[in-house]
């Protein structure tokens, strides 16, 4: 099932990138730069200041990892391998056993690799996930949910300001969480079910 979920994410990422620019593959977007900036934000959520007490915000760290995953998928798609081949490579990388130590050191190692190679290392990324006990299913649901919500906003007037972020007194991202909880996230058409359910809810509450 992981293979199918990876293919779904790769398809979604290509679709989102194409929505931003039809020829996104030839634009030389600095995906690596987006990753290291997200890494800095992630470190803030973990805490690095030795002069004050800081507790890691695991929820926010997980969200930052989902954001990084968007850019990592984009880099992997640019290599020209088939989605099936990429999915196999990622599956193997995620299955590689890792010894986690200081999360901040692991994050700096991942960031250093990103800056030096301008690429994305799935093994190092999986190590960061392991460092906060984030499993593949959480990554998948978080990723698909955010992508579908982004598409939905764009399709319903986000750019021209006509989109209503409050649906019946509750924000769209809260509705997203509620709807995801009602669906089978392992279904091959999970993203389509999610979009359809969001559309029905939006029409019922915002018509």
UniProtKB/TrEMBL annotation:
InterPro entries per UniProt: dUTPase/dCTP_pyrophosphatase
One Pfam family hit: dUTPase_2
Top-rank taxon: Bacteria
SUPFAM superfamilies to which the protein is assigned, alphabetical: all-alpha NTP pyrophosphatases
The name this protein goes by in its record: Putative dUTP diphosphatase
